[in-house]
Specification:
The chain has about 325 residues and is α+β, with helices and mostly antiparallel strands. It contains twelve helices and ten strands. It has two domains: about 40-185, Sandwich (Jelly Rolls); about 200-300, Homeodomain-like (Arc Repressor Mutant, subunit A).
């Protein structure tokens, strides 16, 4: 669905009777371009968590869900990450993006308050993103994005529930941050992302089927049938497009879904394992610990905010 706005008027984005932005548009109707989806059409964001907290023990025990992006802004210096014999210090008052798949140790010196959004871009394979974006980056200042970020950091910090409207606004900030990344990346790296996104178009039905049926057996033969090709051809196509085997991708999706259920529901560990397609809680606990860095029960207890409801933990 498209919303066509008058081209000769100022466009206003308004929240709570307070004007946030004025976006002047000088185009006439005859000059209006027709914009067709390309790379942006593959940006389907799934929100894991958002918060505005003083960092504590939970920060140094940050999980390593492979597909998770982290958009963060610290109020002062004092928080940093160590990875691959390198370090990255979060700058004060600026947005930073930590890409998925990065294994790191989080450190803290002093009292730092962090506004953060944890999310994933469904269908963007971690291995491909890592080849384009191997380490954290500080985003260039952007008045539009930063104004929204400042408003959201206050709203998230005061909220006791993450409802639909706030969730949509938080996702919009994640989209703006990804837009900044694309703008700042060298053209050859942007082309790599476009190539990956284009290569996944033939697998959209399969990827959607996996997410809808995550609790069911998802072997290669079943997925190849959805893709309407032989099993060997499907495995080859999937690896070329996603950068990993179908089995590895399915397991990553199961872990991500389990992480969400652990902190936004009261399901038992056994029920989380069952709902996410693991044979039993013991196998689930082993796989989850290997991928995330700690067992399910500890992961649940370490979270400072319930991901679905936004309810803050004591």
């Amino acid at each position: 669905m498209c919303l066509i706005l008058p081209c000769t008027s100022n466009i206003r984005i308004v929240r709570s009777q307070e004007r946030l932005y004025d976006i002047p548009s000088a185009r006439t109707e005859t000059e209006m371009p027709v914009l067709l989806p390309s790379l942006a059409d593959s940006l389907h964001i799934r929100l894991f968590a958002t918060g505005n907290h003083s960092l504590g023990a939970w920060w140094t025990a940050t999980d390593h869900i492979r597909s998770m992006w982290r958009l963060c802004r610290a109020d002062v210096e004092g928080a940093w990450l160590e990875f691959d014999s390198k370090s990255y210090a979060f700058p004060a008052g600026r947005f930073a993006m930590v890409p998925p798949g990065l294994k790191f140790e989080a450190h803290l010196n002093g009292r730092v308050r962090l506004f953060y959004i944890h999310f994933e871009v469904i269908g963007w394979p971690t291995s491909a993103v890592r080849s384009v974006l191997p380490e954290p980056v500080t985003l260039e200042d952007d008045e539009f994005r930063d104004t929204l970020g400042q408003a959201l950091s206050i709203e998230v910090g005061q909220a006791d529930h993450l409802g639909l409207a706030l969730s949509c606004r938080v996702k919009s900030l994640a989209h703006l941050a990804l837009a900044t990344l694309e703008h700042d990346l060298p053209e050859e790296k942007v082309e790599m992302i476009r190539h990956v996104a284009d290569g996944q178009l033939d697998l959209v039905e399969v990827l959607q089927f996996i997410d809808r049926n995550i609790r069911e057996p998802l072997d290669n033969a079943r997925l190849a049938e959805i893709a309407d090709c032989s099993e060997s051809s499907f495995i080859r196509r999937f690896r070329e497009a996603m950068g990993e085997t179908p089995a590895r991708y399915v397991q990553d999706r199961r872990v991500s879904a389990a992480a969400e259920l652990l902190v936004c529901t009261n399901y038992s560990i056994d029920e989380v394992a069952q709902r996410c397609g693991f044979a039993n809680r013991y196998y689930f606990s082993r796989v989850f610990s290997e991928r995330v860095g700690r067992p399910p029960a500890r992961y649940r207890n370490d979270r400072p905010i319930d991901r679905a409801s936004g309810t803050k933990r004591d």
